[in-house]
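task queued by scheduler; priority normal; single chain, no ligands, no partner chains; default sampling; output format set to structure tokens
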Amino acid sequence: MTMRRIPFLSRPETRQRLGNASVLLTLAVSAWLLFGLHDNGWPAGLPPRDRGLWALAVAFVYIGACAALLWRPHSRNEDLPQDGEDASTLLVVHASQTGFAQRLAAMSADSLRASDVAVRLCAIDRLDAATLARTRRALFVVSTTGEGDPPDPALRFVRDVMSAASINAASISAASTRLDHLQYAVLALGDREYKHFCAFGHALDEWLRGRGAQPIFDLVEVDNADDSALRHWQHGLGQLAGVTDLPDWTPPHYDAWRLDERTLLNPGSLGGPAFHLALHPIGAALPDWKAGDIAEIGPCHAASAVEVWLQEHGLDGDLPVADDAGAEPQTLAARLARSQWPATADIAGLGAAEIADRLKPLPHREYSIASIPADGRLQLLVRRMSRPDGTPGLGSGWLCESAALGDRIRLRIRSNPGFHPPAAERPLILIGNGTGIAGLRAHLRARVEAGARRNWLLFGERQPAHDFFYESELREWLRDGRLARMDLAFSRDPSKPQYVQQLLDAAANELRVWTDEGACVLVCGSLAGMAPGVDAALRDILGDAQVERMRVEGRYRRDIY
């Protein structure tokens, strides 16, 4: 992040005082000008006594309400974790200028509580170093105001806890409290029209990392309340809660796509089956997207499961009901297929239309796009997941099993600028495991199209005989020089079991050469195991300072799940 010291007149508290003074001066001048227009015809009588008493009563009520509002911030200590409280309690901190961050923090807390996660809300102006010292997990929902300034409620936290005259990470005091025990995530709100987009969110993230705190998942940027970015944040909340069914705050507006191809890529694997899928929009041209972007899928229940549910409740699935988007009527079975099913007690005695009115849409699923528009189709690599009872996961089960070729798939492309390609002239190191190869393959396809040849892939999976996804394509690129180097790790290879982070240790010298030459490192794959292992290996080889510098410069990016 660019270093800059905030001048005196650009500080929010200074601007606020000057603004208040200017308003008072304007009011005083206006009153003086209006007084000069008065004809001295003041009313002679006083108001009746009863009206005067009512006026006094109203004034006292108004003064009391104002006092209560002013006193309320001093009674917020109940929002803070108390000594001896369960360390698993998650703290959701908000720093809001207009109230939007506070509302999103409350919605985040409600979503987590619905999944039985213990949560406390806390305004950032009540957060101190002692509270952070005893907090084990925290979410920060913070806005940026003006030209990259923290919101007014965060000024005390910046001054007293972050210990810096500027919010820029490079100027934060190294003497601040260590937070090695803290796991956190940041939702940064901002406006790309401003030069220092989400500056306070990034500064807070840098400060937390610098104190040793560990990110649960990487910072999420929100441009002007963009609903797709907020859904990505909800996706992270679901990972944190250990569930996949957190309802969307703003369900995506899906487009209609057709499932054209589905191929099992790893028959005989010890891992879950992984399918290569190809889709094309129905009745529309192929949209544009960039390598690193995400496909948001609207999943559906299998038709057989819908039929069982209808039979259990004695309902006719062919009955017409209103569409949830207000479009033409459709059948109850069609609505149920893409909705969360209500509890039996909640629909007892209701008709089809009344049941349809109570249905809520299924939450979306996110998948890395494995192709670029030049390929002519949108391609995915999806592993069919299983629930504890062995039944297929909702999203992956729909795409990998329930949907038939030719079926309509509800899909929306979400831009993911934090994982877009670097400049073609910059060397690129791609690191990933499992179905994370999907996002890396899209980047390689983009590099091949751009004629960039300084590409290095490090990839890990289970068995070389079954789980080497896109092997023929990758080996062809390696032979003709479009892929400069490829290192492979297979954890279930009896001859040499290893993980992808071990590949980095073995290639430490080459890694230093590439990064010294300005290489960008992109990591795509599992949040558990691979991503933290790769991060630790990079820091061991390159040092914390260089890794952090690369991250700030946008040369170290991750798309992990």
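post-processing summary
- The domain at 421-560 is CATH 3.40.50.80 (Rossmann fold).
- Residues 12-36 form the longest helix (25 residues).
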